[in-house]
UniProtKB/TrEMBL annotation:
Residue span of region Disordered: 293-338
Classification of source organism: Bacteria, Pseudomonadati, Pseudomonadota, Alphaproteobacteria, Hyphomicrobiales
Bias type Polar residues, positions: 325-334
Organism the protein comes from: Mesorhizobium waimense
Keywords: Membrane, Transmembrane, Transmembrane helix
Keyword Membrane: yes
Domain Putative Flp pilus-assembly TadG-like N-terminal stretches: 15-60
Keyword Chloroplast found: no
Transmembrane segments: 15-35
Protein name: Putative Flp pilus-assembly TadG-like N-terminal domain-containing protein
Entries under InterPro entries matching the protein: Tad_N
Listed Gly residues bias regions: 305-323
Length: 498
């Protein structure tokens, strides 16, 4: 008997069944937990991916324009339709919109991601402050999830259901690359007639208004129609000559963000005058003697020099013997004629014209009976349109009544044809508003950019002094208000921040 009991006690056959029976509840429980974790993770991923997509589509419209929030809301409602599964919502997989999506537009983000978004970050007046919206926070209302694992098994009265939600924050950044380190105070910032920069770019009558720029600093305050300098790219150098080189070159390397640019303290205007005037085939006192600083393909400016036409071609002359002339060797005016200034300057304190310039006199002086687009008889062109037509119609080499041609001097560097050298580029700042808390003639950082713009140089800069005038026409701006000619400079990026 004892032997039988001992044999039974030592017999291990069937022990696996006992162990399985004992551990089966735990195995089933852990399996259910794993399935539930996978289901809730998939649900959260669906919601988060949808929130991310909503945020990115919405943020892509936050370009600093007055209608940016209107367009952003439209994108939020129409551009994304994500489905999600594993929620307690009955029926087929619902869309994210059915779950409910809310948004907040933000002017800024906290310094670090672990800090919460507070009232100071949020745009409260969406109608008037739409331009300030740079980020959007998209929240998906939490949806129900029912777990398979019986939570009441662990604790009486425990609930198997809970909610799952998602939040995403995205922002829009815009900038330009290969841009010159110049800022220009928005000439339409405080326009008495309410004209905006976007309206000016879209209207030929406004674009042909001649604008007189003056350098911020000793010559002028930081107000509409003045210009200054931005910090050049790293490695360029800090001196006046280094700054002038970045302005004079046909291959600038600077990149600047619309979120903020840094100004550079005022520099000697002498090299800067040279940096502008090399574009007209005017010698730069021994500087900029390489092809990247060559003149524009059309340098007609209404000048003569000695017995020549001011450009060293055709009749000879050009500073003597066909040489690239110095500015002080040129005589401007009759019998030659450059692009004229406006008849009157009623705008911007006498520094912006009325757009009424003597096109017929310019054309008859320089091209006599050559034809031009008939539409110009009813809608006067901008000076930039005329300049471009001279090139496209092969009129650059046509001599004026005084013998001037638009072909650059023979002894200058070869003309640059890969880019338009008569255009200057700059960040357009609302200087009136910024000057309240910044010194734009000194070193100010993080200044928001209204737009990046291009301006046509209508005539050489006449003086090396700080109060010298730079005469320009507005050509185009970046963004939705522009005409697209600056798209090759533009770098728009939308990214997730949280």
């Amino acid at each position: 008997m004892l032997r039988t009991i001992r044999a039974f006690w030592q017999d291990q056959r069937g022990i696996a069944l006992v162990l399985v029976a004992i551990t089966l509840p735990a195995i089933i429980g852990f399996s259910l937990l794993a399935i539930d974790m996978s289901r809730v993770n998939n649900l959260h991923n669906d919601l988060q991916k949808g929130a991310d997509a909503f945020a990115l589509a919405t943020a892509a419209e936050l370009d600093g324009r007055s209608d940016s929030i209107t367009r952003a809301d439209r994108a939020l409602l129409t551009l994304v339709s994500n489905q999600y599964t594993f929620s307690t919502t009955p029926g087929p997989p619902p869309t994210l919109a059915a779950a409910g999506v809310t948004r907040r537009y933000l002017r800024s983000l906290p310094a670090t991601d672990n800090l919460p978004i507070v009232a100071a970050n949020v745009i409260t007046d969406e109608l008037n402050d739409a331009r300030l919206a740079r980020f959007v926070e998209v929240s998906v209302n939490p949806v129900g999830f029912a777990a398979i694992f019986p939570a009441s098994f662990l604790q009486a009265g425990a609930n198997n259901s809970f909610n799952v939600g998602a939040v995403a924050v995205a922002g829009f950044t815009s900038g330009v690359c290969d841009f010159t380190p110049v800022f220009i105070c928005n000439p339409f910032e405080s326009d008495p007639n309410g004209i905006t920069l976007e309206q000016a770019v879209a209207d030929t009558a406004l674009r042909r208004r001649l604008i007189e720029l003056r350098k911020v600093g000793n010559g002028a305050a930081a107000g509409p129609g003045n210009f200054g300098f931005l910090e050049p790219p790293a490695g360029v150098g800090n001196g006046a000559q280094a700054l002038a080189q970045t302005i004079a070159t046909s291959r600038p390397i600077g990149c600047y963000s619309a979120e903020g640019v840094d100004t550079k303290t005022g520099q000697n205007a002498g090299p800067v005058q040279d940096a502008f005037n090399v574009r007209f085939g005017i010698a730069a006192n021994g500087h900029f003697n390489s092809p990247e600083y060559g003149p524009a393909a059309n340098v007609r400016k209404g000048a003569s020099s000695g017995n020549g036409n001011g450009n060293g071609n055709g009749n000879g002359g050009g500073g003597g013997g066909g040489q690239c002339p110095q500015y002080n060797q040129l005589t401007f005016g009759s019998p030659n004629m450059g692009l004229p200034r406006d008849a009157s300057t009623p705008n911007m304190g006498g520094r912006m014209g009325d757009g009424n310039w003597n096109f017929s006199g310019y054309w008859s002086t320089n091209f006599s009976s050559a034809s031009y687009p008939s539409s110009w008889n009813t809608t006067k062109p901008t000076r930039y349109e005329v300049y471009k037509y001279e090139i496209s119609a092969g009129l650059v080499g046509t001599a004026s009544t005084g013998g001037e041609v638009g072909t650059p001097p023979n002894s200058c560097q070869p003309p640059v044809t890969s880019v338009d050298r008569r255009l200057i580029y700059g960040a357009i700042l609302n200087c009136n508003a910024l000057e309240q808390t910044n010194d734009l003639s000194g070193h100010s950082t993080g200044l928001p950019v209204e737009a990046f713009g291009s301006f046509f140089l209508t005539e050489p800069v006449s003086s090396p002094s700080d109060d010298a005038s730079v005469m320009v026409e507005l050509v185009d701006i970046t963004g939705r208000g522009g005409q697209g000619t600056l798209d090759n400079f533009l770098r728009d990026e939308v990214q997730l921040y949280r």
